[in-house]
């Protein structure tokens, strides 16, 4: 008889695997706030006393989370997998002076993801079955890119063809209204009238600048305007909601469901975009999804890291109920972000990475996240 309490499954060891992909200064790309010459993350491995390993992703440059590991080990080592929620909130409550916008939350996000992976493997269940059940067999993905680049030859014009296999795409803006218009016009003229185009300013504007940008680009048909304001500008989001000409999305830099509630409770955003490697993992992601249901907002996880973060986002969206619609008549299912830049941390880190086909990713049915890191690749991408 299966022990559904998971009493025998306890955390024996937590190991961090930092990974890094270096593009170099000439190949740097990014957003209005600046470019990056490398991409990194930390893979969190949770080993149980039953011989199972679960894996998760912690956001940020390698080393960002490592300093917090010794701090949490005393709580997590020996704990039952099924008690992960209680442990998470105990750490937050006991260490409230730390706040949540830090590497500790990134580490806890990776641990939470890894625990869900281990729990699924322990009981032979996919992660979506642990967080509400499967509401859809596949999830739609949009192509994310259109970056600012250090090399003009690698700029927007060169990136646009990568969107051809997707029904929707997102490009970077945020360097002034005239530049916003030029970039959106180029995308629309190149990709045609059927392509659904979203934009992302990465919080590089104030309210007046956002309103001017929205007025200028709205005629091109924009699906959503991502991070129009700084994450800290909650009053700005309230003022923007009443005057917006394009749906507003944000969330990649928000930590825990508490921060999302500040924007969802007054309904000042249209779409929540949690990054599961940063916001608190699948547990907080599920809670954010429930807030979206309560507030009739859309959910679309932010994904820019490794293949593990992508897999977790797929499971979260698979479990998100289509309320108020039913799945069969869901007009616009929640999207998952799929970065179109070269990303070996997604495409080469896993034994069998998830790949979109026709703009969709099939929801894994294997136990846990349904993907597994290649240990040789973990070593290959380890910073030297």
Automatic annotation (TrEMBL):
Residues 151-247 form the Mandelate racemase/muconate lactonizing enzyme C-terminal domain. Pfam families: MR_MLE_C (PF13378), MR_MLE_N (PF02746). GO terms for molecular function: hydro-lyase activity; isomerase activity; magnesium ion binding. Its cofactor is Mg(2+). Keywords: Isomerase, Magnesium, Metal-binding. SUPFAM superfamilies: Enolase C-terminal domain-like (SSF51604), Enolase N-terminal domain-like (SSF54826). GO terms for biological process: carbohydrate catabolic process. Coiled coil: none annotated. This is D-galactarolactone cycloisomerase. It comes from Muricoccus roseus.
